[in-house]
Design brief:
It comes from mine drainage metagenome. This protein is of the alpha+beta class. The protein is about 35% helix and about 20% strand.
């Protein structure tokens, strides 16, 4: 015992003992600083939201479980650094512990930053929500905090209405927020004499700025405005010391809602600026790959059981609500997307108010379609007939099954019990457009790394009623919120008889993509001889049915045809 006491008092052994204690405390901080509530694996202060879901920005104080760890973590750093100098053999012996400590220190710094952001938001009356990013949330093993996902609601406190210009006072608190993301601020938060690995990690973190918009009748304008706003915020981060080559920005338009666009409150939440920071480019790619939107947050989407969905389809009913008064005629001078939106409103209204095309029910059978020969005889020259029947209501809804919905704020979604997602027909929808992710310094576009199975650029072909319809260059990135390239739609009229070498109609068409456990809905807004098309591809298959909506002799028709992928 006296020998052990003497050894403990010697300088080298005391420092070595302190190293062990320091590592243990730091590892404890790494494991307990983000206490989780099974099964959601979210920070402990979010527990109340598991029982009562409010909104994204109803965020409790993240400082309460954080402040008591600050002194402990700083002491752990000092102990680790001093002990690290004992001798090479001891350094080698503790190398793994040092690596774990670095992770713990970065995690603690994220908690400290989260608290500071909350305090800035409270002082400047901002609505701010934050969630931790862990390796597990990025699709790899590990539950320690490696970054933050921060969202700031823009209730006229950041940008002027319909402009990328900042409102008075916004630059002040954006400067304060940006200052928390500089390498200098992160290194300073690591305490005295931080390990070299922690310093290197702090100097090479990546920041993504995303500006979001509410759903609008002009999605192209929304995408361009949101990109301009994201660039403004990204430049403020660079001006405050975040290296431009480590900053990425994106205008996501209305493609990544966090609340329902069907309500004014939801649209307010969707107008926001998002700040994501992760350790590396690889982690940023992982984050983007897992990003997804909940289709229920777009208008025209509901949740129902499979039985309810089948009943809706059988009756020709649409899951969307309709206004009581007929909408005004479509403005021929409006933009393409505005005309689509106005036409969708009129089609939805006609679903319940049409006398010429009653909805098919058990008591009221649908009118029999004209024989193909009789219809063909009445077609004007150049008209396209895809072999359908007069449209009943707005069209046929599509059941996706459970959704591929992933978010750092997943506690909001997982706490809500929902059935299968039912997507309204394309006649009640309009394109949603996202911009690319760009590097602030170089302007380089971050490429998409993965595609949805079946949509990797190969053509999809069908021959409805003797016409050939080809969807060319159909590519879908796995990440929601990244641009989906417009495919080229080639239509060969009466191909079965004439085998035209050139398409009689061809254009690049915007698309929306919705994914669920049953499959992928590839929605194409064609125009011309075909209003739009809903191609549903079941999971792990190379073919799928499509509902084709098209005008013919002053009426709207719907046809069903099977598309197959050509390898």
């Amino acid at each position: 015992m006296p020998v052990q006491r003497a050894a403990f008092k010697s300088g080298k052994h005391f420092r070595a003992w302190r190293l062990v204690i320091g590592m243990g405390v730091a590892l404890s901080v790494a494991l307990t600083g983000c206490a989780t509530n099974s099964p959601l694996q979210e920070p402990a202060f979010i527990a109340s939201l598991q029982h009562k879901v409010t909104d994204l920005f109803d965020n409790p104080n993240p400082c309460s479980n954080n402040a008591r760890n600050i002194g402990i973590a700083t002491g752990a750093v000092v102990g680790a650094v001093v002990g690290h100098q004992v001798q090479k053999t001891r350094r080698a012996r503790c190398g793994a512990a040092v690596g774990a400590t670095v992770g713990g220190l970065i995690g603690h710094s994220m908690d400290e930053r989260r608290c500071k952001l909350y305090e800035i938001a409270q002082h400047d009356h901002l609505k701010l929500a934050s969630a931790t990013i862990t390796p597990e949330k990025l699709g790899v093993s590990g539950k320690h905090t490696v970054g933050l996902d921060v969202q700031i609601q823009d209730q006229g406190v950041i940008f002027e209405k319909r402009s990328e210009r900042l409102v008075p006072g916004a630059r002040g608190y954006l400067d304060q927020i940006a200052a928390q993301y500089t390498p200098h601020a992160l290194i300073e938060s690591l305490g005295l004499h931080p390990p070299r690995q922690a310093v290197i990690a702090a100097e090479h973190r990546k920041v993504l700025i995303v500006a979001h918009a509410a759903q609008t009748a002009d999605p192209l304008w929304a995408e361009r405005l949101s990109e301009a706003r994201a660039r403004v915020v990204a430049e403020i981060f660079a001006a405050n010391g975040v290296p431009g080559y480590d900053i990425y920005f994106q205008g996501a338009g209305d493609t990544l809602p966090v609340a329902s666009n069907a309500t004014a409150h939801g649209r307010e939440e969707n107008r926001r600026v998002q700040i994501v920071d992760v350790p590396s480019d690889t982690d940023l790619t992982r984050y983007l790959r897992l990003r997804s939107a909940d289709p229920a947050d777009f208008t025209g989407v509901t949740y129902a059981s499979a039985r309810e969905s089948v009943a809706q389809t059988a009756s020709g009913a649409s899951p969307t609500s309709t206004p009581s008064a007929e909408p005004p005629p479509v403005n021929p001078h409006a933009s393409l997307f505005q005309r689509m939106a106005e036409h969708a409103k009129r089609m939805a209204w006609k679903m319940d108010h049409s006398s010429s095309h009653p909805v098919a029910t058990a008591a009221t059978p649908a009118p029999a379609p004209k024989p193909a020969a009789a219809l063909a005889a009445t077609l004007p020259p150049g008209a396209y007939d895809f072999g359908g029947q007069p449209l009943q209501g707005a069209g046929q809804p599509i059941e996706l099954g459970a959704l591929h919905s992933h978010s750092m704020f997943s506690f909001v979604r997982e706490a809500q019990a929902r059935g299968a997602a039912v997507i309204g027909p394309c006649t009640t929808d309009h394109p949603h457009i996202a911009g690319p992710v760009r590097n602030l310094s170089s302007g380089r576009i971050l490429p998409a790394r993965d595609d949805v199975p079946g949509f990797y650029g190969a053509p999809w072909i069908s021959e409805p009623n003797g016409n050939l319809v080809a969807i060319l260059d159909a590519y879908v990135p796995k990440s929601a919120g990244l641009p989906v390239p417009d495919p080229r739609i080639d239509i060969y009229r009466d191909y079965a008889h004439f085998h035209e070498r050139q398409p009689t109609y061809s254009r690049l068409a915007p698309v929306n993509v919705y994914r669920g456990t049953r499959g992928t809905l590839y929605r194409v807004f064609v125009g011309g001889p075909m209003q739009c098309m809903d191609l549903f591809v079941p999971a792990r298959t190379g073919s799928g049915p499509a509902q084709i909506y098209y005008p013919l002799i002053g009426k709207s028709y719907i046809a069903t045809s099977t598309f197959k992928i050509r390898q």
